[in-house]
Amino acid sequence: MTTLALLLALAACPSWAQQAHEEPVWWSLVPLAPGRAGRVTEDPWIREPLDAFVLERLRAHGLEPAPPADPRSLLRRLHLDLVGLPPTPEEVAAFCADPSEAAWNAAIERLLASPRFGERQAQAWLDLVHYADSHGFDKDKPRPHAWPYRDWVIEALNTDLPYGEFVRMQLAGDVLEPGPGVVATGMLAAGPWDFVGQVEVADGTSEKRRVRSLDRDDMVATVATALLSTTAQCARCHDHKFDPVSQEEYFDLQAVFAGVDRAEVAFDADPGTAARRRELQRDLQELEQRRGEREAELAQLLLEAPGARGLEGERDRLLAALPEPDRTGSMGWHSGLAQRPDELRWVMVELEEAGPADAIRLHPANEVFRGHAGAGFGLPEELEVEVRSAEDAPWRMAGSWQRAPGPRSAANAPLLFPVEEESVQAVRVTSRTLFDRGGDFCFALAELEVLSEGSNRALGATVRASDTIEAAPRWGAAMLVDGRSPHAPEQAPLDRVESALARVRRTAPGAARVEAELTALLEERTPLLTALEALPPQRRVFAAANEFQGEGRFQPVGGGHARPVAVLARGDADAPGAMSAPGAFAAAGHAAARFELPGDAPESARRLALAEWIAAPDNPLTWRSIANRIWQRHLGQGLAPTPSDFGRMGVPPSHPELLDHLAARLLSSGGSLKDLHRTIVRSATYRQASSPSALARELDGSRRLLSHAPRRRLDAESLRDALLCLSGELDLSMGGPGFQAFRFEDDHSPRYLHGEVDPRDPALMRRAVYRFVVRSVPDPWMQAFDCADPSVLTAQRFETTTPLQALALLNDGFVLARARAMAARVEAEDPADPLGRAVALAWLRAPLPAERQALEAHAETFGLAAACRVLLNSAEVSHVD
Amino acid sequence: MWTEPGATRRGLLSHASRGLAGLALARLLVEDGLLTGEGRRPDHAPTAKRVVQLFMSGAASQCDLFDHKPLLTERAGEPWDPGESVELFQSAPGVVMPSPFGWRQAGESGRWMSGLVPRLAERVDDLAFIHSMTSRSNVHGPATFLASTGFTLPGFPSAGAWVGAALGSANRDLPTFVALPDVRGLPPGGPKNWAAGFLPAQHQGTAFQPSAAEPVSHLFPPADAGLGPGQEDADRALLHSLDEGHAAARPGDARLRARVRSYELAARMQLSCPEALDLGAEPRSIRELYGLDDPVTADFGRRCLVARRLLERGVRFVQVWCGADNGFPRRNWDSHEDLERDHGAMGRSMDRPAAALVQDLKQRGLLEDTIVHWTTEFGRMPCSQGGKGRDHNPDGFTSWLAGGGVAGGRTFGATDEWSWRAMDRPVEAHDVHATLLHCLGYDHERLTVRSDGIDRRLTDVHGRVLHELLA
Fold first, then answer.
1. How many beta-carbon pairs under 8 angstroms link A with B?
2. Contact flag B218-A781 (C-beta cutoff 8 Å)
3. What percent of chain B has pLDDT over 70?
4. Run of H or E residues at B302
């Protein structure tokens, strides 16, 4: 209390505050100054340059470093820090036999090269960007394709992607590496997403404006916090009260993200495929444009053909006279359901024998479904009709059809496709864009006719299809050619007129030429479509996206455009002020704050500009921020102990020169994070014992001077992984959808029932980084051990000690199952001394005689699994020296 | 409770070199009490020591429970025209709809109470009503978060976590903050409503489910774990000796000692939790008071009685949920379709137990320093939705407080003539939170913890103490 009073008095002293005002530049904004080495450079204790900085400060306070930790503790610490798993007893035995510098360095290199390294290090990054596999908010719906981003982080850290690149990709991977790069932007999308606000709340309401603004706020907060250790989000309602970020600058940051939403998008995992797809799509688009021009020309020619106008008028009159459709009895053919509109669905009619034909006529179905208008039910937005003259003849395009924009009002009208061929043996109709049933997609037709001189040759023919829903008496393949369509009985006169119309059109002057051109264009199109279909299927990821398939009121900005962003008075979405332009904040000092992009620049240019601004080698915050975070992972706390706040309300670094040294080293290595990990774990500082001397405890209890190593409790993920490791059940398969340690009930509001799973389910045996993280309902076991809450950006886990942890470790079915498995494992591995083996696995040492005696007595009375349960609960497993 | 103080921050102190960093350090030290579970010294003399919050999930209708407006009866069935355009959550405004439950005067004050809450009407002179509650959101999830944490976004500590962190524990065998969710399911946002947010995990609400096979998660090993007779105690004894040895080899580490002790506390919880949850010892009169033998009131009644037992045993904050999340058939107060049917069922399940809790606390002398806080996320419209239901109304609804320094019988604020908009002194959740903290002895503006660079408060940058309601 005396200390506190003294401190408060000091803090309140005006000269201190004055000093802060006079200070020209705050420490974190000073340009990086490498090369200021410590004065003590010649000392046998020093292993790495960084040690000199530490030793200098220790000696200045009359302290000496702690002695090195014993080899067993050291190797266990190294394994848990670098790869998050304990070493094997054999690895420890080997290192204890040869704890040389060479052996230490070899262990470091082995672990840095292990795929487990990325899995361990990714967790801290995922905490920081609040990654989860569900959206959060009140309807916490699953986010089934978040995991590719998680896998990307693991992969990037395993391949040691230079940090600058790591940053750039996460902000603008979609433009830096078209195709797979979009996955990296999962960082921007990692946070919560308000399903109700985005999908259900109407545009133009203040609720919607608030939802969108808060969504961008989360992106700004994530980027500024994780990458810059800056609390820019504090400037949403007013200029930052302590740091040099104005409210205008905050909204300039929001403008950077004004073109993207969090959404699921399709992508090609292979950049070559992505490039090929873009090329094909561009060619297709160009072709479509040319075809559109020819179609217009043809329409004009047909309109002017002799006799056409009269027949058209007659046709329109007959159509208008059609009575209400018959919705009883047979409806027609209905494809299987599709999840996306671009899935392939087709239907084909094979005539008994080849013969003449004037036209193919398709009758749209008329079914009311989920409130969708009946006329035109199932009719694709776009379809193609092909015919062939014989079974072995090639398919020829007879025509294509695209729904005119606007209401589906004329969808009762049959579609007529004149036929060029002398003879037709089969007709095939393929959907290019399926009918939207509201949530899923399909293709349906009431009737397909092959008209010849006013009669239908397709009656009773053979129908084949991509897939069919057989639901007699209304839907079925045979009903496509049963002569029953919604208007069938009234159609005889119409048939005659349409046959005649087809003949007139075929002979219209000039039409043949244009039709030939059109056919040629359509034939040009076929290989493009075939090539597109032949591309490997696309994958899906939840990421930042400008274009995506919308849902309800959640629709993309699209076209590379961005939504307007204004400075909001007091952060109130209903009080917009001046318009914002993409930029960052001037105080960083290394580059212009406003990005000055050309007016027609796509929105991605904004994100790219911010990426470059952040990843610039002379950005004073970026490199200090990440160097401090990596240090924190190995030494328990950052040199600056508020790792996400380098501002005036944070705590400045204990060793500013050391932090700059680490940041400069990271830069000079080309941004290699592995190199930074390497220098830290090679250092004498890292290798100190975790038991402080009496003097060190007195003078450096908080370890700010780094007089000894931290003793830590395993975090939730490491503890769970360790249990599986000791029981011999750990499944090291990497990547893919997260395993679900809960029972899921889909409902109006989904429910995640943790614990209601079989603890022996093999799916649960993977590393915890691969678990499906539910945002709203945390896994109670993981939560007890302070796992990160994905609603917030977690830079450092709490490390509490609670009876709930004791209960979770004693009584959870999952832990008890591991104890049984461990007992079985050690009995198999060492039948002569299973208990010795169990202790070796858990503690990486032989038991003391008293320990062995107690454990053996216990195993004898209650079984080996009981002894394993006790070992798994022991502090020597849960804590790291 | 739950934890040892962490490493001291004296080291930080000696290296605070300059400027505002000193202030930051001072703040860290002040926060220490909040972060370690030791609690904070009060800012002034408290009038209350504990809180029980009765949370009506789904939005309980003020104009069918407590906020009587004769105009709704006078204009029944007429198109509702409050004189300005109305933006509703789901529907367009329907006709004026009087409460189907009728109204009667109660208590010495003669205040009007709905026919749906006859038991609460008997206790009306103990209750202090806030009729001018408003919410910042018209959507259940954010509005529920606002009422439970002070923020519409998830990730903030629940009021119960703040209270537990400030007061510290009064019983080392039970959590400081317990949530009792509805047997039908969790409210919108689920456990985020009793989460610790950026406060340490020991402050989070522990969910007790008194009717479940396993009322407290992990309290006992699963039945199929196959533990032999006597093994539980023997396992713990062996673990204790091993961990003692481990700690002894690492002298001076408070956390290792705390860990040994946490296993002892866990063992005590195995006794204290079932004891607190065991209603067998309660006399017949108490069971009847809470309606335990009537299927309509049994679940909420059981949880209100458990709440009283927990408060008696030193738990600081108990959250009792009445209603779950949205789903069909309705399992909360969200009566869009048929108010008489759905509010009828919820009201009958709530009335007797809530009144019993107030009465029971009073007869034990506990009401003097216990605050009962009845609330919901927002209210409902005075007009009908689809003929028989009511849509959301964030602009005016009712909460009430009792005990712990609150003056029973008082009323604060009022809605307009329709029971639509708060007209007289509108109140937000922050104001109620500020008032709760005030009664517990804390200035809501001084109870702060740093998170992501911001000194966070339960009341954000808002909140005023409703002195008018205090005795």
1. 295
2. yes
3. 90
4. helix B298-312
